[in-house]
Amino acid sequence: MQYIYNHKIINHFNEQNTNLDFYESLIESFEHMKQYQTFLKQACLMDGQNCLKEYIPKHCEEFDLKWHQQLYGEKLMPDALKFATIYHANASSAMTLSWILSDMKVPVEEMAKMITQMRGLGMDDLFQGSDCTTNPYKIDK
After folding, report:
1. Which residues make Cβ contacts (< 8 Å) with residue 72, sequence separation at least 6?
2. Average model confidence (pLDDT) for the chain?
3. 10: CB partners within 8 A, 6+ apart
4. CA geometry: angle at 123 spanning 101 and 34, to 5°?
């Protein structure tokens, strides 16, 4: 289940692709989720080995910490940015799981926009003094 999730659904959110447009990648991932809607819902309702509802937040948090560190640069990420990263990763994972379990009634673009805007709150200040020159959660549309 985790392999399918990583390679067929969220294939842009991996260690090799840390230079990504978050909003566009999220839209594409949500479109993949719609394609695999039945599989995802059933997988999120299962417990035990390969539990997807436990894996999604863990993967999101690990990816975001690595991605934000890369965006921040060589210096160690400040505690405030690390805390915000973990918070937003878990909040967006909870929103995504709720969306999956409620039969994906909210349109893909709306979900992606809500999550991206939520994640962008306060990030300009937290990335001050880093190598990152723009908010990675800015929507260019």
Report:
1. 81, 127, 130, 131, 132
2. 91
3. 29, 32, 59
4. 25
